[in-house]
Amino acid sequence: MNKVFERALYPYRRSADQDAAAPVRHPVIVVGAGPVGLAAAIDLAQRDVPVVVLDDNDKVSFGSRAICFAKRTLEILDRLGCGDAAVETGVTWNLGKVFFGERRVFEFNLLPEDGHKRPAFINLQQYYLEQFMVERAHELTAAGKPLELRGRNRVTQVTPCGDHVALDIETPEGSYALEADWLVACDGAGSPIRAMMGLDFVGKVFEDNFLIADVKMQADFPAERWFWFDPPFNRGQSALLHKQPDDVWRIDLQLGWDIDREREKQPERVIPRIREMLGADVEFELDWVSIYTFQCRRMDRFRHGRVIFAGDAAHQVSPFGARGANSGVQDTDNLCWKLAAVLNGSAPARLIDSYDAERVQAADENILNSTRSTEFITPKSEISRIFRDAVLDLAEAHPFARPLVNSGRLSMPCAHDPSPLSGPDAPGMPARTRPGAPAVDAPLGNGWLMDALDGGFQLLGIDADIPQDVAHDGVAVSTLRLSTADNPALRERYLGEAESAGYLLRPDQHVAARWHNHDAQAVGAAIDRALGK
Amino acid sequence: MSSLETAPNIAGPDDFYAELLAAHEGLSKAESDALNARLVLLLANHVGDREVLCAALAAARAATPPPR
Fold first, then answer.
1. pLDDT tens digit string along A384-423?
2. Cβ–Cβ below 8 Å for B34 and A386
3. How many CA atoms lie within 13 A of A374 on its CB side?
4. Which residue from B33, B42, B45 is facing A386, i.e. has the nearest CB?
C-alpha cells in the first residue's frame, strides 16, 4: 500500500488567528482540501486573493477514488501549475474494449485529435493528484502567495451574516472563530456545511452496489479500458478494468442491490471473484476495496448568499463517465476568477450568480449523461434490458449499433450556452469555439495555444489587426496576435469560413465573444457583460 | 423535411407479413422479444431521421389500446 496515505502533508499548526481577541476576517475561506478545494485555493492564490483552506484531516484521501482525469481538467491543472506532474505520473490511454458475455463485441479508440498538448484522458489515483496539488499549494505559500492550508481544522458551525459568514472551528488545541467574506464549500458529497445550513437534498438513489478494488499486479494487460456487460465471472452484472500508475489496476464489479455489504468486502469473497476475472494464473495483491452506491442529484442553487458550493458538495453523479472530480475542478475554474474580480472591485457581486447559472447547466448535463449510462449499464426494467442486449448483440457485426453502446460517456467540458456572460457571435465560424465554449488548444510554433493563455481577459487576433494594449475601465486585457499561416490548425478551430477573427477570452479560457474584425467598442461592451455589469 | 409514411408502402403486404412471422418461428417468447428489439434498432437506423423516428414512436404509442 502506498505510504502517501500515512504522511501528514499539511499537519496542524497553531495559527495566530486562534489567539486573536476577535474573529479574524478573511476574504475567502475554502472548506475541504480534496482536489476541488485545492484547485480553488491554488487558483485564488495565483490571482493574489488571500485564501485559507480548512480541512478536518491532514492527509491525502485514502484509496484511489477518482482515477480518470479529462483533457479539460488537465488544461486547468496546467494553469494551476500541476499539469505536468499529473500527466508524467498518469497513464495515458485511448483504446476501450467492450465485452458482452464471453464475446468481445467491439473496441473503440478515443482517437484524440492531433494538435493538442494534453491527451483525452489520463488515469491517476486521486491521492497522487492531491499530493501534487498540496505540493503546489506549499510552493505558492513559500513564494509569498496568500495561501494557508490548515490541517485538522474542522468547521463545527457556519452562520451566514449578510455580507460575511461566521465560522466556529474545532482543532486539536480547542476551538476558535473566523469570518469570511466568501465561503467556498468543497467538503464532498456528505458536505457538513450543506447539512449545517439545512440545505441537504434528496436525490435518486440507484439501487445497486458496486465493488471497487485496486489490485496490484505485474500482468500483461494493456493500458486500455475494458468493460464487460454480463460477463461469465459476474453473471447478470457489469465489470470494468482500468490501469493506474504503479501497476495498480482499478476493478469495478456491479453486485446488485440485495447483498450483504460487509460480507462482500471480505478478501475471501473478493479474491475469488477477481481471480475468476483475471484468470487463475495471474498473481495479484489486493490494495484497497470499497463498496459504494451512488446518487444523481444536485442542489437547487450553488450560491447561497456568501456561501458557494462546489464539486460533490453541490452535485453528485454516477461514476460512469468520470464526471465527479472533473466537474468539481471545472466548478472552481469557473468560480475563482469571478471571486477575484468581485473582491478587487472590478465586478459587482452579482457576477457570482453567473457561477450558479453556468455550473448548474454543467451539473445537469453531467447528471443527464451519467443517468443515461447508468440505465444502459444497469437496466431497470425488462424492456430496458431487452433493448440493451439487442444493441450489444448487434454491435459486433453492425457498426451502427456501436454508438448506442453506453458504458459511460466520458467527461467533456460544458459549453455555456446560453450564458448571461456571453457576448455576440459572428456567422460562419466554428461551433466548437462559440461564445460560452472553452478555448480549443492548437499548436503555436513549438508550443501550445493553451500555454499562451495567461489567466486574465485576453484578446486573440487571428489574421486580424488588434492593438498591442487593450484596457477597459481598469480591467487589464492582454492581447495575442496569431496567424493561420504560421499555425494552420487555427483556421479550422477558430476561423471556419471567416477570413479573420477577434476572440475575447474570459480568465477561465472560455470564449466570451467573437467577431470577424476588431472593434474596440464592442470588445469593451463584451468585457462589461462578462463581468456581470 | 420528411414525415412518417403511414399510407400503404409495402408491395406484397401478405408476403411481408408472412416473412415477419417466419422470422419468429421456433423462437421462445424471450428470443422473439430480443429479435423484435434488434429489428426495431435496425429499421430505426435505416430511417435515421430523428423527426420521423419521433413521429413513429408517437404513432406506436398512440395506438396502445385501453386496458381491457
1. 999 999 999 999 999 999 999 999 888 889 999 889 999 9
2. yes
3. 24
4. B33
